Automatic annotation (TrEMBL):
The lineage of its organism: Bacteria, Bacillati, Actinomycetota, Actinomycetes, Pseudonocardiales. Residues 34-328 form the Beta-lactamase-related domain. This is CubicO group peptidase (Beta-lactamase class C family). SUPFAM superfamilies: beta-lactamase/transpeptidase-like. InterPro entries: Beta-lactam-related (IPR001466), Beta-lactam/transpept-like (IPR012338), Diverse_Enzym_Activities (IPR050789).
Amino acid sequence: MSTSRRTVLTAMGAVPVLASVRPAKDLDLGQDFSGTVLIARHDRPLLVRAAGKANGSLPNRPDTKFVLASMTKMITGVAVGQLAQDGRIAFPGKLSTYLDGFPPDVTVHQLLTHTSGVGRPALGSGPPPTWTSIDETVRGTLEIIRTTPPRFTPGTRYEYSNDAFWLLGAIVSQVTGLSYYDYVRRNILTPAGMTRSDFLTRPQVLAAVDVAHPYWTQPDGTVTDFTTSPYFAFIGGPDNGLYSTAEDILRFTVALRGGKLLSRPFTDIVTGGKVPVSATEFAGYGFRDLLVDGQRVFGHPGGGPGQATNLDVGTDWAAVVLSNHDTRLDPIVNQIRQMFT
């Protein structure tokens, strides 16, 4: 790398580690981006860049933790895949085999692929109850799902469901005797080396100095700290609740592709597309599987109030984008895809 290029990257706030993809230096995050971007090839970071504010005057850093939103579903998919690999869960198995009081004809496969019809719509489910403990949150959420009528006959269509992943988390807990959170810590976060990742409670988020607060865009264009909202849950769940860093997500990707979390065949089963969502997008087991310019890219996006995230994993590359503002990431994600596809 030339001195001039190193100077340019440093001025842009980037940390160049390996100069294998020249266009990475031209990545345009836009003036309003707040978060962290990591681009890697052959499991090694090419570029790590942080911008914006994490909380008040504290800047985002490469090691800042962000709530992953629906990227968490990949973690849940891997957890279910591990138990299926061990013969403790069957993808065609009925929900009623593992949990009482839920529609008997729903299968694990349907929960994983958003074809179960179970639960509330993904948006507009109303203000949350004021739970103040992990146990209250888990029990209360499952009771709401249990008393919510099915939206359609299982297996007849695709309709995104966060509640389905709460049920998958409950199955993991029922089968293993551990809480969903403890199972993930022991069997995914630890073996992957994700030392800066965890499911954080509201008090932990408020007390931390290394966690980016989500900034929620209001109808008038102003932003507010979502942690002050009654909608900010005591703890997130198997659908959206993991906090992590860009570097830890790369570690997850490396462990997944390297066979540390699942065998290679089961990795393909979990990440591979099962149900068409569009002409080029397919739902896997907690993953989405895409065709981008004729090449396979798997991963998952996430979004919510003050949350915008995405993981793309290509043949020999990966890109992580984590933001604590609810702005669209398409311009950044598409730039990165064009670098590799």
